[in-house]
Amino acid sequence: MPAKVYLRSFDLASDSREMKFILDQKMTCFNGIYPFKIFPDKGLRSLEFEPITIFYGGNGSGKTTLLNVIAEKTRIARHSAFSGSAFFSDYVSMCKMDAARIPNDSQILTSDDVSDYLLDMRHLNDGIDSRREELMEGYTDRKYKELRFTSLEDYDNWKEGYDAKRLSKSRFVKERLMRNVDMFSNGETAMKYYTDRIRDNALYLIDEPENSLSAKFQLDLMEYISIAARYDGCQFIISTHSPFLLALPQAKIYDLDDRPVTVKKWTELENVRIYHDFFLKHQQEF
Question: Which of 95, 68, 88, 86 has its CA nearest to residue 13?
Fold first, then answer.
């Protein structure tokens, strides 16, 4: 299957339209009018996309804002709320995009989504563990308690008592309790989050996936994304400063730290050069 590009290009609100909007609001201060006045200062007006496109930049560079603007314009699925503003939808309405039909399975996946997923798994397991302890503590009472069944309302208690008499404690608990959801390390669980949600033939916006992943899992995710883009009809737009993800083959990288914003090779990016120089300096120690 050839690589696909569902979102071909995206035009941000022009400087003149931004200024007209601000003046119409009779505002003399630009503070609190997010996301206006972010991108014109970067000389960023239009974006063109490949099967894999990356927004690179440090904190405050606007890469997450760009993903959220695109997500709102394309109306793809979102799993958690984001910190927009009262003016966010006004800004999005001024943007334009050139796109084929955006597949229904398309999603934006954020680091907050992964954090929520990790917490949900822990809470679910905590609940299961509590119920297991309750069943184990009550097993002996049920095993030796006289069985009484006078009405249908007594059935559940009667059935638990009957099963306690005929089953071992472990079997009794196992039959009444779902297994704990498999809990791996945070990195393993985060990796599973991405692999479970990235399916064939869809557009995926991914915000800083490295936040919950070790270097090894970042490399695994890099390979997974590369294969999904090349063979499974997926398009990715990713914000990251991870050198591993920046090395994605054939990725188009926008350097949002540059003025004006430019397209660069991953080996030209400042963050990558810092890693490169650091390891060169210490190469004799390996």
Answer: 95
